[in-house]
Write a structure and sequence with these properties.
The structure is a single chain. Strand 5 and strand 6 form a beta hairpin. The protein has one domain: 3-Layer(aba) Sandwich (Rossmann fold), CATH 3.40.50. Helix 2 crosses helix 3. Helix content is 47%, strand content 15%. The protein has 9 helices and 8 strands. It has a 5-stranded parallel sheet, with helices on both faces. The structure holds adenosine monophosphate. Adenosine monophosphate binds next to helix 2.
Amino acid sequence: MKNVILLAPPAAGKGTQAHLLEEYYHLAHISTGDLLREASRTNEELRECLKSGHLVSDEIVLSLLKERLLNLKEEEGYILDGFPRTVAQAEDLKEISQKIHKEIGYVFLLEVPKEVLEQRITGRRICSTCGAIYNLNNEMERPTQKDICNRCHQALTTRQDDNLESFEVRYQTYLKQTQPLVSYYEKQNILYRIDSTKSKEEVFQKLKEILGD
Ligand code: AMP
């Protein structure tokens, strides 16, 4: 069973790689960002917090995450996209994953320089129906038809927090709160550094080489 964490600054490719892993290995894709965006539809305070780029309280994130993890099928592996974001969250995850006998085997650190992330943030478009991710600033990742999803032909949207102001908060939060997880998982010998400036296919190829069949 493959249980994977994707660790990365905003717009480094977590969502894109999670979708590819989900399809190829039939893993459950658990994105705490997606779970929170869904919950924020009926929660104004949460919506404002997400827009600002600050982290949401552990209490809210953990309750959403636990519900997903506890509902996995017995042999089902999973990809965590956006969790953990702090060492305290990693400790909580350790406890829950041990309880359900699905401990983390791989942590992929997707590395991208800040200038590239800024470019990606302003060009990112998302299909809110099927979750496909596009980038207008990258010729290879543009939709064929302007603002329309190639897969399901629905309209593409821009995330509320995909602007340079929120990006700066999210990036600084990543450096301060999330980056300590790199040495945390390095010490456990399960961290793999991936150059995520490459195309999504090349990055995915690297992940497959590490994960095997
Ligand atoms: P993402 O989709 O991973 O970029 O997450 C979008 C936003 O959701 C973040 O900027 C945070 O506000 C919130 N969020 C996602 N995951 C977590 C988490 N593990 N802990 C706290 N806040 C989170």
